[in-house]
Write a structure and sequence with these properties.
Two copies of one chain form a homodimer.
Chain A (H helix, E strand, L loop, with lengths): L2 H8 L3 H9 L6 H13 L6 H8 L4 E8 L9 H16 L2 E8 L3 H11 L4 E4 L7 H9 L3 E4 L10 E5 L1 H14 L5 E5 L5 H16 L9 E3 L4 H12 L7 E4 L2 H13 L9 E6 L15 E4 L2 H17 L7 E4 L2 E3 L12
Parallel strand pairs in A: 1-2, 1-3, 3-4, 4-5, 5-11, 6-7, 6-8, 8-9, 9-10
Antiparallel strand pairs in A: 10-12
Helix pairs in contact in A: 1-2, 2-3, 5-12, 6-7, 8-9, 10-11
Chain A binds a DNA duplex (30 and 30 nucleotides) through helix 2 and helix 4.
DNA sequence: ACTGTTTTCCAAAGCGCTTTGATAGCCGCA
DNA sequence: TGCGGCTATCAAAGCGCTTTGGAAAACAGT
């Protein structure tokens, strides 16, 4: 059933039917009602491509997710982020199209998405510390919101980010206040902006307290359970092992706990742990007293906010780009305790 | 830059330019070359909505992902599944649109996707044991492939599934052969078809060996780390605790290990564990000798295969629906061992 | 030179919608 | 009665592409 058929059936013109359905005022209420009823009866929904052609709007939004071919890893954060966005989109009538793109052909794919015109705007995931995509997109003139930031960008652009540096500064400070001096960091890949900032926060807290930064306690990599396990295992073999660690994701924290269990150590007593917690739905760390002490920032909410920002940009072009910086909550759980007395 | 402009620039008609770019034979090779060069020079890419309108094809595929509002959980399997599909789609020129839909308005959303015409086909995730969506979609006449199966469906439909029943039958049999008699099961929600079949496989293996099925050892729920933890903790408190458990996902298995560590027990010695392993990228269980003994079936490959099936259905309508049943590998890891001697 | 093929290109219709500009019909007011 | 100003509706153009049905040009065969 299409507009033409519906109009014929009603004995009206396409114009009137279209207007009735789209809420324009120049149609009598009785007529509008009649049209709406018929539309419902025949399950009429306007063809989205035709509508897009006519209006110049695609009514869909693209999420561009980088996939490193080498690691074949999709950051599990995306699933929750998208869940957050999705609800906002469907309320506003947008579709969500996902584009996994490999390291190499990033710019080509952006250009393509733009030229093909199948999205009205983009969400950019996983910005690197230095990320050419952003300048490129800005030149392309398509609205976009970055989840995270890139550090060295000349132009202004819209982003939503967590205050990674402060979160890790606070977490490290907490550990220091508990008496810890040997504090490890198991981070994401530090070419990624978020991981770099977390590292800075960690290093800054140590520096503020005059604690030297020991490279033997620094690890970075894809945030898998295995990374946490290996890093912790290696650190425990050191002559002077850490009494506390900071981890960049709950998945890493699970690996850390695993290594500690293997070594017969108890989390929160022998070694303290503070993790960042994206509040992923299947890795909830939300008991009355959570298992892990954590800096928590629900990524699902980031997704919803980013979606709202982007829709605003699309629907009111010409506004200056918005920036949202969210603070993480520091949640006390059972994985932290005072530093054990040496010996 | 659009077709018209490109054609004018080249001094050709739109027809010829269109044909040149789409590989039709009735255009001179020299002309084609000239057109292609110009297209590249101006970054011309045909507007996908206009193309869709003209051809009646959307060149995009929808993934419908059920979200239970109650649990607010997105199964992490989807991320990897989609990664597998995505590559196939982009090679074949399709876009991927994602539709998270809540329990209630399933059918409405399918109908909408169909009427709006923004997808050529659908992948249906998370089928329930009894799932009205499938009959509904079949009536709608839109090509679709189900990831998993529903049990009681009259009509024939395309699906790709793992042999859940056999996998869990084999896993349970392995444990029985190792001397275990008290074997727990921590499963997904058993209204879901895959979980129901796993339960059947487990129960069948016990029955084959004349071992009674103890309801105290049966758990089912959203497959989170917490489910594994709580279930195992509870089972360890039983008068006659299990010496082995089967889990439906590695995330559950992590929770089980956690509970065991808390109880001071060693995996593979005190209690054996076999998990199903979807081979998720950030929870790899792939050491030389894997941590967990597991039934492994890489969900990313399921995604790719499903995508290929669906594209075949779209491009050759009228063929009978394909079915793919994959066997899981049984991988021996360090989490299994002979049943401990009683006492 | 004349016809029949083949090659190469083109004009125009059509996909399903929105939107502009026009047209009736009706009201009130002089 | 006639005219301006509304209201409710419509016809038609246009969005950017594909594709049908020609037609001109080039070529081949007699």
């Amino acid at each position: 059933m299409n507009l033409k058929q519906l109009a014929e059936h009603l004995g009206l013109s396409q114009t009137t039917v279209s207007r009735a359905l789209n809420g324009y005022p120049e149609v009598r209420e009785a007529t509008r009602k009649r049209v709406q009823d018929a539309a419902r009866e025949f399950n009429y929904a306007p063809n989205v491509r035709a509508k897009g052609l006519a209006t110049g709007r695609a009514m869909s939004i693209g999420h561009v997710i980088p996939v490193s071919k080498k690691h074949e890893i999709v950051n599990p954060v995306f699933a929750d982020f998208i869940t957050g966005s999705s609800e906002v989109y469907s309320k506003a009538g947008y579709d969500l199209v996902i584009s996994l793109v490999e390291d190499g052909d990033q710019e080509q794919r952006y250009r393509e998405l733009h030229a093909k015109g199948n999205v009205d705007g983009l969400i950019v995931h996983g910005p690197m510390r230095v990320d050419s995509r952003i300048e490129f997109l800005a030149e392309l003139g398509m609205p976009f919101v970055v989840h995270g930031r890139a550090s060295d960008i000349g132009s202004d652009y819209a982003w939503i980010d967590m205050n990674n540096r402060r979160a890790f500064h606070r977490a490290a400070t907490l550990l220091i206040e508990l008496g810890h001096r040997r504090i490890g960091l198991i981070n994401g890949i530090e070419a990624m902006d978020f991981a770099y900032r977390r590292r800075q926060g960690y290093a800054g807290a140590l520096e503020d307290c005059g604690i030297p930064c020991d490279p033997d306690l620094l690890f970075a990599g894809e945030m898998t359970e295995n990374l946490g396990f290996c890093a912790m295992r290696d650190m425990l073999l050191l002559d002077d092992p850490p009494t506390a660690v900071l981890t960049s994701s709950i998945i890493i924290a699970l690996g850390v706990r695993h290594a500690m269990d293997d070594a017969g150590l108890v989390l929160g007593r022998d070694v303290s742990l503070v993790s960042h917690d994206d509040d992923l739905s299947y890795l909830r760390n939300r008991a009355d007293v959570p298992v892990f002490t954590a800096t928590r920032s629900p990524v699902r909410e980031h997704g919803a906010t980013a979606a709202e920002m982007l829709i605003r940009m699309i629907e009111n072009p010409g506004q200056p780009p918005e920036h949202v910086l969210l603070e993480a909550d520091l949640i006390l759980g059972r994985s932290t305790g005072p530093a054990p007395r040496p010996g």
